[in-house]
Write a structure and sequence with these properties.
Elements: E1 5-8, H1 18-30, H2 38-43, H3 49-60, H4 67-85, H5 92-101, E2 105-110, H6 114-124, E3 132-135, H7 147-155, E4 163-167, H8 170-178, E5 182-185, E6 202-203, H9 212-218
Parallel strand pairs: 1-2, 1-4, 2-3, 4-5, 5-6
């Protein structure tokens, strides 16, 4: 089936926000006397904030009565940091123009809350390209469950097998593949050699590098 639709993750793909999520989470967890290592944080990249907090609260034995407050503090902290100092990732204008020129429907699907979607859309100036956005914030399950991708495709009246997804995390990759969509993975450079990326249809180092040959390979 010919491809007609492209869906992008946001954090770590369109904006360099993963370090800012890490900063915000570290600041909150420090209040409870625990420290998340880089490896710990990386292992839960792509989860919703609620699931992230619940996982690490359970791991460290922190009373779950504080979980909702911690979640709110992390989200408010990261929104503030993104607005103040987030960088747009290389290749964002290129990739949106590429698919717009092919008359593709374009959507966003993220584990992050709607407020973050609105902020990033405004910062990147991509609003005119978008046909739909979807957040897993209020779904029963977030990534790696495929529902957020399926919802985004449905909102654009696209079949899953007509969609290409762009992701930067393993949980996001699993979500896209579970939805029966093609997936291009663009991992953080520090994770580039992770063998798990072999599950993707294509791995690149930047959105800027995506071109006609890659498109033809995915669309064959």
């Amino acid at each position: 089936m010919a491809l007609t639709t492209v869906i992008f993750d946001i954090d770590g793909l369109l904006i360099d926000s993963e370090p800012l999520w890490h900063e915000a989470a570290t600041a909150v967890f420090n209040q409870y006397g625990v420290k998340l290592t880089d490896a710990m944080y990386a292992s839960t990249t792509g989860l919703r904030t609620k699931e992230f907090v619940q996982w690490w609260f359970g791991y460290f034995g922190i009373d779950m009565v504080h979980a909702v407050e911690a979640e709110k503090d992390i989200v408010s902290g990261v929104l503030k940091r993104i607005e103040e100092k987030a960088n747009i990732m290389p290749g964002v204008p290129h990739i949106f123009e590429f698919f717009a020129n092919k008359q593709f429907k374009i959507g966003l699907a993220t584990s992050s809350p709607p407020e973050l979607i609105d902020l990033v859309v405004r910062m990147t100036g991509i609003d005119a390209y978008l046909s739909a956005t979807a957040s897993a914030e209020f779904l029963p399950f977030g990534k790696p469950h495929p529902q957020v991708y399926l919802n985004c495709a449905e909102a654009m009246h696209s079949k899953p097998t007509e969609c290409i997804c762009f992701e930067d995390s393993f949980n996001g990759l699993i979500s896209a593949k579970a939805a029966r969509m093609k997936c291009v993975i663009i991992p953080h450079h520090s994770l580039n050699k992770d063998e798990r990326w072999g599950a993707a249809d294509l791995k690149l180092s930047s959105l800027q590098n995506f071109g006609e040959l890659h498109f033809d390979r995915l669309n064959s």
